[in-house]
Amino acid sequence: MSSTVYEIKESSIADPGPLGLACFALTTFCLSMVNAGFVDKSATIVVIALALIYGGATQILAGMWEFKKNNVFGATAFASYGAFWISLGVFDLLATLQLVTVPAQGVWLFLLAWTIFTFYMWVGSFGTNKALLVTFTLLLIAFILLTIGAAGSHTAHVLGGYVGILTALAAWYTSAAGICNTVFGRVVLPVGPSKK
Q: pTM score, two decimals?
């Protein structure tokens, strides 16, 4: 009786980073345009749809693929911020449908908790690259401002919207770098190494 030995090769997957960053950037941009006052609040329904599907579910998938690539930072960031968007989308949808009233203190608590999480992800971003460090620095500032805004400061809320737009642009740049540098096989958009 002969035995056959089958070699199992580890499957390789494409880098999910550019997808996760694109999901995060686009959804952040749309919400921040509303927060900054550039777009009317009625556009929130667009943000809700994006939060549930692109910024939420699709970004969580990117996080799961980062686990497959053994990237703990990317997996934690994408899965967590994907869940952030779904959570925000759910309570914004329920509020829009007038099924619940979201208290200001609840929004403040939600944003405070995400600010704490973003703080240690910001610390972790020092070990990635300059583009991600810039993205997380801006994101942390945006969360701090939005948390202050939820406590009653309209000015901080609007400033949080402005910084959110800059955060989205930084995330889009980092996503574009991941796409272009891969497709062209050379550095088209530098992301710069960070000091470890």
A: 0.91
